[in-house]
Amino acid sequence: MQLSIYTKNPHARAISHLLAKNPSTVYERKVKGHSVRFAYHKMTDDELYASIFVTPDSLALVKDNEAYDITHYINDREFAVSTIFLSLIRSALGTALNGKPKEEYIQYAAMDFPFTFEFGPISSSLSDEEIRGLWEPLGYDVTIDTMVDTRRARFLTLFNTISLKKALQQIFIIIPVMDDYKHYYIDEAERERLENYGVGWLETHPMREFIYKKALRFKQLLLNEENEQKVDKPSLNTRRYETIARTVTALKPKTVIDMGAGEGKLSMLLAQIDTITKLYSVDPSNHALAKMEKRFADQQFATTPIIKWGSLYYEDQEFAGADVFVLCEVIEHIDEERLPQIMQLITQNYMPQHLIITTPNAEYNTVYELKLMRHDDHRFEWDRKQFEAWCKAVAPNYDLHFEGIGTIHEQYGAPTQMCIMTRRDSHAI
């Protein structure tokens, strides 16, 4: 993760004071387990080139921050410029962001200078045209370089004559708009700070509403609230969990893995199945694991769930040979190009007798009157043909059975689609 700043003008040394970093030393700090460094590549009277970059601790990304969820442990957070990256570097750039250097340099905080900013890679589902639409109205010349191996990851170079304070504040608001991943938790102080970053430019930006909906979600604009009500109705969640539980019951398993168990709502039902002797409730979020512990406390179960930290990117031999492996609303949070690796781990290493996968049916979004995907943190949503084709491709040694969950629409099917995969040396469904 890296953000570079370059300028060539007679006040370059004054700008180093706006950054509040000594050109003769490398700034290095540990933030939440990650290494944050700021270094100057070049510093003369009329030229400044500096970079701030993060060397992440992958385990800290998933274990130390209770707000990170399934999206963060199975994707490329340790490599990409993202809201997580911004949260880690904010303190290092605090003086520049707030425009409050030492008194003798305050005049420079409001002055415009010719700056070039480079950052990336950033994983974004936005088109190049949409990305330009975010930056060009603010006066930036935009160069976009796309990584060869992925359609989403881009490097951006921005040029503008602007104050350092305003440029950094714009970067801190617009990167979350581009970032595909779910945002970290934002408290009240953070909300006010980010709102202040938009003063003087955000209200006149032609994509203002889009920016609020994507980045400043704490605003709780009407569209987001309506979407949440439409797609997160307890009745659909309940029907999904009950359908999975009935399916698992019919399979008469002894060992079950509930991967991405969240707060444990599905595991609560699975724990009532009397044939199960071992039930793993697995999640990468410590916050979710803590909620599971509270949910399961003092409950009477046929089998008490084993609460366990786990990741689809780290093999755990305890999961090998399970009778049933469940991925309930998990795959849509993963980049499509990463799914084959995960499915190989499950079908070839763990080799469960049965694998149950549920995911949204993209066709049904028309019923919800949604033009985009159901949630901001979904990497994709498939229609029924796409889901069926993918299942056949990634599980050649399994027989497949497809069902819909939820209210059936004559044209668009059900809101949730489910595939039950049965290994060919198992008893077929």
Structure, described:
This protein folds into two domains: 2-219, c-terminal autoproteolytic domain of nucleoporin nup98, CATH 3.30.1610.20; 229-423, Vaccinia Virus protein VP39 (Rossmann fold, 3-Layer(aba) Sandwich), CATH 3.40.50.150. It contains 16 helices and 14 strands. The protein has helices at residues 12-19, 58-63, 70-73, 83-89, 94-98, 106-109, 128-135, 164-178, 188-197, 208-214, 222-231, 234-251, 265-270, 286-296, 339-350, 384-394, and strands spanning 2-8, 27-31, 34-43, 47-55, 113-123, 141-146, 153-162, 255-259, 278-283, 306-309, 324-328, 354-360, 398-405, 416-423. Helix 8 crosses helix 10. The longest helix has 18 residues, at 234-251. The radius of gyration is 24 Å and the shape is elongated. The two termini are 47 Å apart.
Kindly list the characteristics that best describe this protein.
429 residues, alpha/beta, c-terminal autoproteolytic domain of nucleoporin nup98, Rossmann fold, 7-stranded antiparallel sheet
